[in-house]
Input
Amino acid sequence: MRAPSQARHWVQEVMAAWDIFGGLLDALLLVASELVSNAVVHALPPVVLHLEVTFVPAKHVQVRVTDGGPGPATPRVEEEHGRGNAIIAALADETGSRTDNEGLFSYWACLSV
Output
């Protein structure tokens, strides 16, 4: 994935197939766009977007972006950019990150359905 616009288009297609519309769709589009934007600007390729519906403990849609690192940036309040993680945290019920055995980073957000 090379651009947030690609992420929004793909998320919209998948959510339509899953019958998810309205405010939740808007939030998912924004979260996916921010996660992909962060990966494209701050990380090494590949940038891969994943969507998953989970049912435990409740029904959620998980948006996850995996990239080649180098890791999370620490935004500074005085900078013009760097507020994407705050937007994601405000919209999501839960967020997190992890590194896999191959050194790839994943950043994710779960939103209640």
The chain is about 40% helix and 25% strand. The radius of gyration is 14 Å. The domain at 4-112 is CATH 3.30.565.10 (Heat Shock Protein 90). Helices lie at 4-17, 22-42, 84-91.
